[in-house]
């Protein structure tokens, strides 16, 4: 069972991102404020939950959260400011869109750029410890997956509907065969011949 609160008397928003290690597409982040009454035994880090359950949980989170929002930073911005800063910016954009202002941000990971005057706490593997961060991980992951499925209709050669633009052998092989498209992150190492087994 994940912890619901880091503090007892502050309005907390959990924040997490998805797509940081991908070779193409945006990085997505979400911010979620859960009510004190929220209970869900299935909720966990999105990587620990199968796809069907992630989408079921997304509906529950969106229906029951006090506030939630998703922020996006595209591949061109990622190339310009680097992926770490892009991850922070995506979280900032998600927090910007919340319809309530949190008093404390719970950030998955070990680093963050302060958002305005709101206090934050970085929690390593926080998406497996705190419900609000886990909820953010579910939203970020599912919304990014939806986006990559849409892109895969335009660029079926990369199999993004399967790999979501992560550096799989199939994705790298497609880059070698077809080259890159406008959604690839040019600042990333897009082709690694050692990863291909021909």
Describe the structure.
By secondary structure, the protein is of the alpha/beta class. It has a single domain (12-190), classed as Nucleotidyltransferase, domain 5 (2-Layer Sandwich), CATH 3.30.420. The chain has six helices and five strands. The protein has a five-stranded mixed beta sheet. A hairpin with an 8-residue loop joins strand 1 (12-18) and strand 2 (27-33). Helix 1 crosses helix 4 (131-154). The longest helix is centred in the last third of the chain and has 24 residues, at 131-154.
Secondary structure: elements and pairs:
Layout: E1 12-18, E2 27-33, H1 51-64, E3 67-73, H2 75-81, H3 83-96, E4 104-108, E5 119-123, H4 131-154, H5 160-163, H6 169-178
Parallel strand pairs: 1-4, 4-5
Antiparallel strand pairs: 1-2, 2-3
Helix pairs in contact: 1-4, 2-3
Number of strands: 5
Indicate the structural class: alpha/beta
CATH class: Alpha Beta
State the helicity in percent bands: 25-40%
CATH superfamily grouping = Ribonuclease H-like superfamily/Ribonuclease H
Q: Which regions contain 5 or more consecutive residues with pLDDT less than 50?
A: 194-198
Which shape, going by the Cα principal axes? globular
Q: Strand sequence of the main sheet, in spatial order?
A: 3-2-1-4-5
Q: Span from first to last CA?
A: 45 Å
The helix-strand sequence is EEHEHHEEHHH
Tally the helices: what do you get? 6
Radius of gyration from CA coordinates: 17 Å
Largest sheet: 5 strands, mixed
Query: What proportion of the residues form beta strands (DSSP E)?
Result: 15-25%
**In total, how many domains does the architecture comprise?**
1
CATH topology: Nucleotidyltransferase, domain 5
The chain-level mean pLDDT equals 95
Which architecture name does CATH use?
Answer: 2-Layer Sandwich
């Amino acid at each position: 069972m994940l912890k619901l609160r880091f503090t007892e008397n502050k309005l907390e928003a959990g924040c997490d991102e998805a797509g940081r290690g991908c070779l193409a597409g945006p990085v997505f982040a979400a911010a979620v404020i859960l009510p004190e009454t929220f209970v869900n035994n299935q909720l966990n880090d999105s990587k620990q939950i199968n796809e069907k359950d992630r989408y079921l949980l997304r509906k529950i989170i969106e229906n029951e959260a006090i506030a939630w929002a998703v922020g996006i930073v595209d591949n061109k911005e990622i190339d310009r400011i680097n992926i770490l800063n892009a991850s922070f910016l995506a979280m900032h954009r998600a927090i910007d869109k919340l319809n309530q202002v949190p008093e404390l941000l719970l950030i998955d990971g070990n680093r963050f750029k302060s958002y305005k005057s709101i206090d934050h706490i970085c929690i390593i593997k926080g998406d497996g410890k705190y419900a609000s961060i886990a909820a953010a991980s579910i939203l970020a992951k599912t919304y990014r997956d939806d986006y990559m499925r849409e892109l895969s209709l335009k660029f079926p050669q990369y199999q993004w509907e399967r790999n979501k633009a992560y550096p799989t052998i199939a994705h790298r092989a497609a880059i070698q065969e077809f080259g890159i498209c406008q959604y690839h992150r040019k600042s990333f190492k897009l082709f690694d011949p050692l990863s291909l087994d021909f």
